[in-house]
Amino acid sequence: MKIRLGVIFGGRSVEHEVSIITAIQAINKIDLLKYEVVPIYIAKDGRWYTGKMLLDIDIYSDIDLLKRYAKEVVLYNRDGRYLLQNKKGLFKSVVNEIDMVLPIMHGTNGEDGTLQGYLETIGIPYAESNVYASVVGQDKIFMKQILKENNVNVVKYKWFFDTDYMNDASKVIHDIEKLGYPVIVKPATLGSSVGITVCHDELELREGIQEAIKYDTKILVEEMITNLKEVNISVLGNYEHQELSVIEEVGTSHELLTYEDKYMGGGKGGKLQGMASAKRIIPAKIEKDIEEDIRNMAIKTFRSLNSSGVARIDFLIDTKEKVAYVNEINSIPGSLSFYLWEKTSKPYTELLEDMISLGIVDYKNKKAKTSTFSTNILEGFSGSGSKGLKGIKGLKK
């Protein structure tokens, strides 16, 4: 019997379209002899839809048409069965049933632990990182704090809340300038290079902060490496076991890798290819000792953040000082980094199979742990003599 696999994508994020590209790529490579794929699209307004038409990427160019013919649904647990129920109509019929979820979400409200929290609440098995790893992977400040604690190289940085800047911009600017120019300003919880600015002086810094504040309440400012080479590596596994892909060197004509570099390169027939379209050199042209440092730090980063499934870890190399730094981890990377695994002789279909299998293993491991106690502590609060109940009665006065 086939496993009914719900693939959830889209979402309320500036990376909405990137998620659609990644999801359609993956769905076309899932082993249909083993899995029945159920596409679940989350529109930008937060509504959930399902239907076979969602498998055609062209439908997303006309969202009104999509909403007219796709079925709006909710996902819930009924007696251990995970059901997609029609949200509209007099009779709320069950549209489909799924056994497991493969979340393919990028950015906020999906990759950041929000979706994972809902899946945990209803109890359905899912692939990729859990709530905690997703949160710290998405928040670049949390990530850097954890990595520093685990002796993983990160560049020097400052961070602040948007209200800190609004209340005393001069103080924030003065603190940042201790890093020295140039610096890079980033929204703390976004990905795909959205809202990022390179700043060479105070004027550009103020403009960069205003740009980042459009997207986030937490702002990260990093020392910029001027003798820079950007490389990425993908990790597959969980806390017990990890595999590493080849290392890629990503090229750009800008001072840093942009959204356009990553996703707008285009492909055959004018179709977008997601991260697979970016200019890259595989394997990266780096020295052996740097390569070894990167591979070691990649595993240490993956385990320190308790990641699971497939992730891509981005590194910055100072070619003058010959030092590599972790830039960020992508808990659900663009295109799921399949292009890096294909270079290690792991086809995309096999990568997806490994991700799903890891999700099942993680689910079983979690189920084996104690999550409830047989003793009911509320027993002491029942009965007419309970002080707890008297306290509650007092609140009602």
Give the name of the CATH architecture of the largest domain: 2-Layer Sandwich
Helix content: 25-40%
Let me know the average pLDDT: 90
Alpha-carbon distance between the two ends: 59 Å
Strand order of the largest sheet: 6-5-4-3-2-1-7
What Rg is obtained from the alpha carbons, in whole angstroms? 23 Å
Structural class: alpha+beta
Q: Which range does the strand content fall in?
A: 25-35%
CATH superfamily of the largest domain: ATP-grasp fold, B domain
Topology diagram in text:
Blueprint: E1 3-10, H1 16-27, E2 35-42, E3 48-50, H2 63-69, E4 71-78, E5 81-86, E6 94-98, E7 100-104, H3 114-122, H4 131-138, H5 140-149, E8 157-161, H6 162-167, H7 169-176, E9 183-187, E10 197-199, H8 202-213, E11 218-223, E12 228-237, E13 242-250, H9 259-263, E14 280-281, H10 288-304, E15 309-318, E16 323-330, H11 338-342, H12 348-367, H13 387-396
Parallel strand pairs: 1-2, 1-7
Antiparallel strand pairs: 2-3, 3-4, 4-5, 5-6, 8-11, 9-10, 9-11, 12-13, 12-15, 13-14, 15-16
Give an overview in words.
By secondary structure, this protein is an alpha+beta fold. It folds into 3 domains: about 5-125, 3-Layer(aba) Sandwich (Rossmann fold); about 135-155 and about 225-360, D-amino Acid Aminotransferase, Chain A, domain 1; about 155-225, 2-Layer Sandwich (Dna Ligase, domain 1). It is built from 13 helices and 16 strands. The chain has helices at about 15-25, 65-70, 115-120, 130-140, 140-150, 160-165, 170-175, 200-215, 260-265, 290-305, 340, 350-365, 385-395; strands at about 5-10, 35-40, 50, 70-80, 80-85, 95-100, 100-105, 155-160, 185, 195-200, 220-225, 230-235, 240-250, 280, 310-320, 325-330. The protein has a 7-stranded mixed sheet with strand order 6-5-4-3-2-1-7, sandwiched between helices. The chain has a 5-stranded antiparallel sheet with strand order 14-13-12-15-16. A 4-stranded antiparallel sheet has the order 8-11-9-10. Strand 12 and strand 13 (about 240-250) form a beta hairpin. The termini are far apart. About 40% of the residues are buried. Residues about 260-270 have low confidence and may be disordered.
